[in-house]
Design brief:
4 helices; alpha+beta; flat; two-stranded antiparallel sheet; single chain
Amino acid sequence: MGLNSYKYYFENSRPDWDAIYKGKENKLFSIIVLDNNSGLKPTDIARFDYEALAADFENPVLIRPLDINKYPLFGFVFAETNENNKQELYNILSSDLRKYISVLE
């Protein structure tokens, strides 16, 4: 896609969203915040499995990990989902994320 947000800002212009999303009318684009709602303290967490997380999405465009010991989040998921597969979004939004967490022993 190659959008340059700085160029659009400085030129006071807008992307041609109709052209960008042409053929993607039945797609949902999401940003999911991976908040630590696991009930576990960050100091008790050994690892977060971002690969397993990605496997639970049909098209994870980008997963941006964060260090749970520096920030109160595991990161962000940018996903493209078919409109008829909203269940993947419902699943992640209702998850406590424990299935992706390894605990220190």
